[in-house]
Amino acid sequence: MKLKELGEFGLIDKIKAQFSEAIPENIEGIGDDCAVIHQEGKDSLLITTDLLVENVHFLRNDITPFELGYKSLAVNISDVAAMGGTPRYAFLSIALPSDLEGPWLKSFFDGIYELGKKHGILLLGGDTTKSLQGVVINVALIGEAPAQQIKRRSQARVGDLICLTDTIGDSGAGLDVILKKRTRGPLEDRLVKRHYLPRPHVEEGNWLSQRNAINAMMDVSDGIDSDLKRIMEQSSCGVKIDLEMLPLSQDLKLYSQKNNLSPLELAASSGEDYCLLFTLKPELLESTLESFEKEFFRSFFVIGEVIEDKKFEYYFQGQVTHLKKIGFDHFK
Ligand code: ADP
Ligand code: MG
User: Fold this and answer.
1) Buried b (16+ CB within 10 A) or exposed e, 289-315
2) 29 near 16, Cβ under 8 Å?
3) Residue 107 CA to chain centroid, in angstroms?
4) Rg (CA), the chain
5) Ligand 1 centroid vs 31 CA: distance in angstroms?
6) Contact residues for 216 (Cβ-Cβ < 8 A; gap 6+)
7) What pairs with residue 142 in β-bridges?
């Protein structure tokens, strides 16, 4: 079978099947945003790694080196945030073409440095090599969280409300600006910024993870259409999403209108928003919402419900409907 038929998630399942049996009970491996290593009497370690490849994840002549450095770290911080952890130590491995200029490199490292400094992350090592085929960046990040505070993709319960910590779709619209080479005004620039400089929701993740009201949690990296399937697999449940409840920014609505795009499709399937998706005990909605608003001076958004049947259902105006596009799979 070819890799493109197996798909990214099929491949990960095969790796998991081959390597999981030797993993002891105090360690959680493949399947969540981070691996978890529990330690006697100490906070647990959360470990994650992400790869950014030129022409797959970014176009070097469009993204600034600062943004590229920033984003390489941000996507990893988001995975730590997704489990309720605090990011601590980073390792940076890079494959670079030898004709890169000094100022480019300086800005790239500044992007990593600025975001790392903001979160108190220490860069402790990595690897550097020549590349014959564009820039490749891998960041590995270690975070910490009290064991009892960690939230997982596997903890969703039937009846839970499905919620988001931010609007979705802006990053996808930004990517549309880049790929379709649209003329850029202030609106397009803001959307591109959302794509290149995502804010990992560390404070929100920390806050949510401390509450019993929250069951499952993950970050939105591939788009909810794909990410919710991970929750379904890990929690053995289904989901029902009301498309009319998807939180859309004014910018996304304007951009979609201007370019004749479906804002709901962009919101559900384009990904890289890096906000948090969580499931919430329905009886605690009001009190959780109230405290969240007090803490963050804004709301979170309810978009649907966890159901028993292992089905993924989208509703629009009370009717079951379908999304044309599927979530982002690297080999399809
Ligand atoms: P995320 O989008 O949060 O980075 P993914 O959905 O990409 O997570 O990955 C799902 C799970 O599969 C994670 O636990 C990740 O560590 C694991 N994984 C992905 N690729 C590999 C690989 N090549 N080898 C081992 N585990 C992998
Ligand atoms: Mg993730």
Assistant:
1) beebeeeeeeebbbbbbbbeeeebbbb
2) yes
3) 24
4) 20
5) 7
6) 151, 152, 153, 154, 155, 156, 160, 231, 234, 235, 278, 279
7) 47, 89
- Vertex 195: Cα angle to 172 and 165 (nearest 5): 80
> Are 238 and 310 contacting, i.e. CB atoms less than 8 angstroms apart?
yes
Above 60 in pLDDT, residue 325? no
pLDDT at res. 239: 98
**Sheet strands side by side (includes 276-280):** 214-219, 276-280, 161-164, 301-307, 238-242, 312-316, 319-321
Q: Is 40 exposed, middle or buried (0-12, 13-18, 19+ CB in 10 A)?
A: exposed
The encoded tokens of residue 313 equal 């259902």
Q: State which of 16, 18, 33 you would mutate to test the pocket of ligand 1, scoring each by most atoms of that ligand within 8 A of its C-beta.
A: 33
Q: What is the per-residue pLDDT across 123-172, written as a single tens digit (0 to 9) for each?
A: 999 999 999 999 999 999 999 999 999 999 999 999 999 999 999 999 99
3-state secondary structure of 129: strand
pLDDT in tens, 240-265: 999 999 999 999 999 999 999 999 99
For residue 322, what pLDDT is reported? 85
Q: Give the alpha-carbon dihedral of 235, 29, 328, 3, to 10 degrees.
A: -120
Tell me the two tokens of residue 36: 């978890």
Rounded Cα–Cα distance for residues 250 and 70 (Å): 25
C-beta separation of 169 from 273 below 8 A = yes
Question: Measured in angstroms, how far is the CA atom of residue 13 from the centroid of ligand 1?
Answer: 10
* CB contact at 8 A, 197 and 300: no
pTM for this entry: 0.96
Cα 99 to averaged position of ligand 2 atoms, centre (Å)? 33
Is 229 a residue whose pLDDT tops 70?
Answer: yes
- 84-328-130 Cα angle (round to 5): 85
How long, in residues, is the chain?
Answer: 332
